[in-house]
């Protein structure tokens, strides 16, 4: 099992510092707010709503409301929970069915079997021990409920990029750019937001210290918790964004189709894991 390098309270404090500084520009700067990704995630949320019914949705680590905005017409009520008040302050709660909670997700303030569905988007890698939150989500989900988690950094991808950098095999401009981003992201955050680089690294322990999340390790953890259905898919291959924005969406889709046809050989080509778990 991968060593988890930071105490939970230190990781929480780092995330509050980082996301308080980022809150004002988060929606404009984070790539998952691009239209093509929003459409992709919206389709998943529609499928979850159809599967579980329109009842109650819990959005874990809701941030500024990325999931809440996409799901607001798909569920009768939505509860968003996050530890950073500056992010919660930017969530649009109009409609009367959205409730926000400032609370750590390792111990949820809800009764057992409360929710029909739960989401955790770009969140689990910000936790010292994501199994605690997955266990809490299992507790508050109703039987048959679904947890949808996304943008989990794929360990095979990140380790492949780091291996190429160590070996000096950076002939590809795409690989070189990814390696440079990994090496300098904390410097960029320090420059742009005035946050100490070590604080940023502490806020993402499963990406910066543990090189992402391994699909097989994740599967073993959620099976042990009790989730009965585990669906893990690979998302956003290296260079997909460049194809979408610089050439043609059809070309991007063709490449994606080919890479999916040769799974599991191509697993290290995909940046992220997408997960759907049924209770």
List keywords for this structure.
279 residues; alpha/beta; Rossmann fold; 13 helices; 7 strands; disordered N terminus
Describe the protein's topology.
Layout lengths: L7 H15 L3 H4 L5 H18 L3 E5 L5 H6 L5 E6 L2 H4 L9 E5 L12 E7 L8 H11 E13 L1 H13 L5 H21 L3 H7 L1 H5 L5 H11 L3 E9 L2 H7 L2 H13 L8 E9 L1
Parallel strand pairs: 1-2, 1-4, 2-3, 4-5
Antiparallel strand pairs: 5-7, 6-7
Description:
By secondary structure, this protein is an alpha/beta fold. It has a single domain, classed as Rossmann fold (3-Layer(aba) Sandwich), CATH 3.40.50.150. The protein is built from 13 helices and seven strands. It has helices at 8-22, 26-29, 35-52, 66-71, 85-88, 130-140, 155-167, 173-193, 197-203, 205-209, 215-225, 240-246, 249-261; strands spanning 56-60, 77-82, 98-102, 115-121, 141-153, 229-237, 270-278. A seven-stranded mixed beta sheet has the order 3-2-1-4-5-7-6, sandwiched between helices. β1 (56-60), α4 (66-71) and β2 form a beta-alpha-beta unit. α1 crosses α9 and α12 (240-246) packs antiparallel against α13 (249-261). The longest helix is centred in the middle third of the chain and has 21 residues, at 173-193. 37% of the residues are buried.
Gist of the model:
The chain contains 13 helices and seven strands. It is of the alpha/beta class and 279 residues long.
